[in-house]
Amino acid sequence: MPISVQRLREWLSPNADRLELAPDGWATARWAANETYWSHFVDREEAACTTLIAAVRDGRDVVLLDPDERIKRVTFAEVIAVASRGRERMTVLDVGGNLGDYYWIARSRHPGVELDFHCLELPAVAAAGRRINPAVTFHTGEDVLDRQFDLIMFSSALQCMQHWQSMLARAARSADRYVFLSDVPTLSSAKSFVIAQHHDGHVNLHHQFNRGELLEAIAGMGLKVLREFDMGPHPRVRNAPEQSICTGWLLQRGG
Fold first, then answer.
1. What number of H helices and E strands is found in the chain?
2. Segments in the chain forming alpha helices (H)
3. Spatial contact of 153 and 102, defined as CB atoms under 8 Å apart
4. Are 102 and 76 in contact (CB under 8 A)?
5. What is the distance between the alpha carbons of residues 239 and 27, in angstroms, rounded to a whole number?
6. Is 40:202 a contact under the CB 8 Å cutoff?
7. CA 153, CA 100: separation in Å to the nearest integer?
8. Is the pLDDT confidence value at 149 over 50?
9. What three-state secondary structure class fits 7?
10. Distance CA 98, CA 128 (A)
11. CA distance 180 to 63
């Protein structure tokens, strides 16, 4: 079927948000550095995080507040309920945790749990987080993974890491009990591949994971699947051999 004129205009627009197969993987020549891509969103994310903090302080249930984020927030609330069982205090590291939004989501649903909440982020994002969200400790170096945490989570972030295996293996060693992978693009049949995300002249690359390959790697790191979550559809990727779905896993160390 011929593409519509409107769709063509959207595709050609320099600020269109679109996804397409990156046939050369992480060697894709059009790739702009991750930091350039994500720093572009800092102003928008600051406004959203400030609104979230105000809503929690007003006593609103922010888990159900934003329809676009509802599945991820509900899933995270379930994860915190499991991970904090029998505990009054938890240490959490959110890898790719943006401006520390999930600290406030946990506060909203589990106010009785004292959280020592940390985020590992890019320098520009971490600087904004320190300014607007001082309740969270921000890190920019991977040496934070030399510490132990009750829960280490990857907030829609594992797929954005070129060397995700080494990062996940370090998290498996640093997690005292649990690792949570959120919103992972998962394929049932096709082998893992890389896609390019375009927005406003910036490009970011990230993985689409074959389910079996990913679960085999997880098991090899000494992690077992405690719970699996259906986190909804993934946006369509142009020219992809298979369209992915979003999956979450709560993983437990050892056992």
1. 8, 10
2. 5-12, 34-39, 42-57, 70-83, 101-109, 123-132, 164-174, 211-220
3. yes
4. yes
5. 18
6. yes
7. 12
8. yes
9. helix
10. 9
11. 18
* DSSP result, 79-115: HHHHHTTT-SEEEEEEET-TTTHHHHHHHHH-TTSEE
Question: Quick one: tokens of 59?
Answer: 């006593």
Mean pLDDT within 62-91: 90
DSSP symbol at 163: T
At 221-243, the pLDDT tens digits run 999 999 999 999 999 999 999 99
Burial of 237 per CB tally in 10 Å (0-12, 13-18, 19+): buried
Name the token pair of 61.
């249930």
Give the residue carrying structure tokens 């649990």: 178
pLDDT in tens, 2-13: 333 333 333 334
**CA 187 to mean position of chain CA atoms:** 17
Nearest to 154 by CA among 232, 206, 89, 107: 206
